[in-house]
């Protein structure tokens, strides 16, 4: 069962600061199946078989599982959905590693990505660089527990504004300072460093005052098994609320795209307005 998510992409400009309270998930890439090559393999081994799924990740997962036992000739009834349910029941999770998605996550905080990148097995990450990208455009992610309280929001917003103003001042002052050859040498920049090199050096030093709430963007690639592990770990009631909200959004897009791989999860409402993600097939 899939519980519709109440989340909407939420952001507002407050005193010049763009405040974000919900992440966005973009599915930028997924697999395709070379049907001719699959048919060639089957013909070479004297069998004919066709999955009833049109989702490449589901087809490839089923194919990988069937290769393990060469069970193409006499498939059990129920098609791909029944086959993948059995895979999850018996915990044959290694075959799920063959299904891969490319996701772009935005509207998330640096605090969240510090937790996200701990999920190394089965994932690849490419994140926005604070050394190269100018952070003078003010975008910050506010925790719901603060955003929902006017007094707490005012404290948070003032703190973020001060940090942001300090970053802008430091970046400008450092950039001007590094234009001086002596200062550039002291900062270990190459002789005659160009403007781009000086800007990068200024931003990498100035970013030290930016808070964990600073918005970032991160491109992730994950296989189905790794994504399931992420959702079980970060979709639990004990997880940090922002990353739990992200786990729910990732589940939404994956259940829509590959229901036979991710349809076993249920979204159980929690008091804070997020959802706990639960499945009868843990640690597949």
UniProtKB/TrEMBL annotation:
Residue sites binding dUMP per the record: 115-118, 127-131, 207, 234
Keyword annotations: FAD, Flavoprotein, Methyltransferase, NADP, Nucleotide biosynthesis, Transferase
EC number: 2.1.1.148
Active site: 234
InterPro entries referenced in this protein's UniProt entry, alphabetically: Thymidylate_synthase_ThyX, Thymidylate_synthase_ThyX_sf
Cofactor: FAD
Family of this protein: Belongs to the thymidylate synthase ThyX family.
Protein's UniProt name: Flavin-dependent thymidylate synthase
Organism: Frigoriglobus tundricola
